[in-house]
Specification:
By secondary structure, the protein is of the alpha+beta class. The protein has seven helices and six strands; from the N terminus they run βαβββαααββααα.
């Protein structure tokens, strides 16, 4: 099985605590459309999370098949040339699968905070997996099982974030806003 790693942005005791918190949280989260954590490395030389390699690329790359995106998809190993554009049926199935993982997370009082096509990864059969669940830091700061941000922090990618989160913080409804924007992007 091929793996992909997500390296920590920096390597110090604080980064290792965040890595441990995210690893512990992801270990407890199991859902068919949530990218599964295979393991993690606590080494200060290369702290990282390990996931299965999603050879279908991201939904964003598959929606916008620019030369750069095609090269990125081909480097994953499944394609040797540009994949066919996604059909409407495929787009809708993918954008319906990823929110199932959000509902699962919300049931565990966890808010994703960055739902967008770039964080929906696809396997070679075009099954969707929600990724980049970098919610452990916020969970650790709040001392809670789920991740929320402090009032006034903006944790979304511009264009996908609910402007109300600037005033009220993030919640499952702000994830819902990002799902709506992602659906709009898929359909247009």
């Amino acid at each position: 099985r091929r793996m992909a790693g997500k390296r920590a942005k920096y390597a110090d005791a604080s980064a290792l605590r965040e890595l441990d918190a995210e690893g512990a949280l992801l270990t407890r989260c199991k859902h068919p459309h949530l990218l599964p954590l295979l393991g993690y490395c606590r080494s200060l030389e290369a702290p990282c999370l390990l996931f299965p390699l999603m050879e279908g690329g991201s939904l964003e790359h598959r929606l916008f098949l620019s030369d750069e995106h095609v090269q990125s998809i081909c480097r994953l190993g499944h394609f040797t040339s540009a994949p066919k554009p996604l059909t409407w049926r495929q787009r809708l199935r993918i954008v319906a699968q990823a929110p199932e993982a959000l509902v699962y997370l919300h049931g565990r009082e966890v808010t994703h905070r960055d739902f967008k096509p770039a964080n929906i990864l696809l396997d070679e059969s075009l099954h969707a997996y929600l990724s980049d669940t970098g919610f452990a830091k916020a969970a650790q700061e709040q001392g809670a099982a789920g991740a929320t941000t402090k009032r006034g922090e903006f944790a979304f990618t511009p264009g996908y974030g609910d402007p109300a989160s600037l005033k009220y913080g993030v919640s499952p409804s702000t994830d819902g806003y990002a799902v709506g924007i992602s659906l709009l992007v898929c359909l247009t």
